[in-house]
Amino acid sequence: MTVGSHVARSRFPPVERTLRLATGLTLFSFAASHFLNHACGIFRLEAMEAVRFVLLWPWRTTVGQAALYGSFVIHGGLGLYAIYRRRHLRIPPGEFLQLLLGLSIPLLVIIHATNVRLGNLLFGLEVAYPPILHRYWDLSPHFGLPRQFILLLVVWIHGCIGLNSWLRMRRWYQKWFPALAALATLVPVLAIIGIADAGRDFDARAAQDQGFLARNEVQTPQQTAALGAIGERLILIYLGLVGAVFALQGAREWHERRFRAVTVRYPKGVEAIVPRGFSILEASRWAGVPHISMCGGRGRCSTCRVLVTSGLERLPSPNVAEMNTLAWIGAYKTVRLACQVRPRESVDVVPLLSPRSFDPKRGAPTFAASDEREIAALFVDLRDSTRLADGRLPYDALYVIDRYVAAVCHAVEAHGGQVTSVAGDGVMCFFGADCDAPTACRRAILALRMIWRALAALNEECETAFDFPLRFGAGCHLGLAVVGELASRHTAQFLGEVGNIAARLEGLTKELACTVILSRAVIERAGFAMPTPENHRVQIRNVSAEIEMIALRTQSELDDLISTLG
């Protein structure tokens, strides 16, 4: 990395991100209170009405309505601006789903808001559950009611995706995620059940009280026609606005591609010729160049960082989001965030964190649902992983952990092993589900060699980019275990003290200042010669016999062991 001045951090947060978050939280709070009110229909109409005055009262005040409608306009406007700013829609599926949900919400909201809010403002129609239920439950059960259910689900899913993106790296959120996920699932389900129960209660009351229906009639046919015409115009205006955004985007792309193309050059002669205004990350995706971006291109991590080798002086200055992120990681001025910088002239870049690909199509070997077998258990753990989060962006720490776990799992699966659990940075796996014990032991040791080499290569990147030396420890042992498949999870698993011994051997690597510990049983059954140096005996708790083992400190020692196979 070229040495230069560090990037200074701004004291002010990005305005656009702050506005999107504030308005999104406002809209989600309204939706949550609204849906909880719906859920009270489980306790009949009176409960819905009584709770409505409490839950929805803040949104009926002048301040509440200004916050609600202002948030709706600003949040929607920022969404359209984000679409206009995008240079193409070659984006990950999760981002595309969020985009589609956001665009569909106004279409669904306009009709409901026109009937309820404008009906109240223009014709003085009562805003209460009985007439609204009558409109959807009795007068439009095949169109209006399903549309309301779809609106409820779309709004809730869109909001939950946004909240998860904002909170997912916070420790308290990770701890409470199962409970929060259950709550997030329960709210819309209870809201739909509440509407259905309230609708049945409405029908029962109408059947018993002849005047009940007359007291809760909705608008007259003339009012319905007037509100419907207003709703149709608003929908056409919205569709025209969305169409104009895409049309302007297309016209801009055509003009810039025709007259103002920019070339982004990558290593090994790869080029992306894109219109001016593309970010480097968008250029990479457009040209099919692998480019990691853990936060989805929002400037909240540094995994898309690039080293600018030519054209740095012609790049625009970092915005606030990029400036703060680069300052957080202590980057030099030659390093930029690919998702934020939009070159106006041709530029040469080197992605500093490139995704490693592995074969995801490799299937798991088949074996009996429950069988006692002799297996080789392997436990791999990352050293000093708690220090990884200190002073680093959460997404960057997640990137390192993800790359480490992927390297270990790929090596295990490439040699016919099964990964049974990944607990943070500890990976437990085994070999022998589809082979005999000698083959299982050889596969385990060969997988260890592949893991060592892969993590050594990854360490070079981690030390350069994150100032974190990536070190690991591993323990491997051979023993009997019950091997099977968990029916509830459809994953391979084994039960037996062999896994406990492998984990204890890994723990001993810290005491012996080594990297890998192999038990004598694994080495001999694999057909390797038992080395004489670093030969130890250890008594492991809850295991009656002592375990004879060898400690390996370097890759060359493991290579020498493998070379002894006859």
Average per-residue pLDDT, rounded, comes to 84
Shape: globular
Strand tally, please? 13
What distance lies between the first and last C-alpha atoms, to the nearest angstrom? Answer: 46 Å
Main sheet: strands, sense, barrel:
8 strands, mixed
Q: How many domains, as an integer?
A: 3
Output the number of helix runs: 17
Into which percent range does the helicity of residues fall? 55-70%
Q: Taking Cα atoms only, what radius of gyration do you get, to the nearest Å?
A: 31 Å
Pfam family, one: Fer2
Main location: membrane
Protein name: Adenylate/guanylate cyclase domain-containing protein
Organism: Methylocapsa polymorpha
Supply the key terms.
single chain, 566 residues, alpha+beta, Ubiquitin-like (UB roll), Alpha-Beta Plaits, 3 domains, 13 strands
Which helices and strands, and how do they pair?
Elements: H1 15-39, H2 45-55, H3 57-60, H4 62-85, H5 93-123, H6 129-139, H7 144-167, H8 171-208, H9 210-215, H10 221-259, E1 261-265, E2 271-275, H11 280-287, E3 305-310, H12 320-329, E4 335-337, E5 347-351, E6 370-382, H13 394-414, E7 418-423, E8 426-431, H14 437-466, E9 472-486, E10 491-495, H15 497-511, E11 516-519, H16 520-526, E12 535-538, E13 547-552, H17 555-563
Parallel strand pairs: 1-5, 9-11
Antiparallel strand pairs: 1-2, 3-4, 3-5, 6-8, 6-9, 7-8, 9-10, 11-13, 12-13
Helix pairs in contact: 1-2, 1-4, 1-7, 1-8, 4-5, 4-10, 5-7, 5-10, 6-8, 7-8, 13-14, 14-16, 14-17
Subcellular location: Cell membrane
Domain Guanylate cyclase: 376-506
Main location: membrane
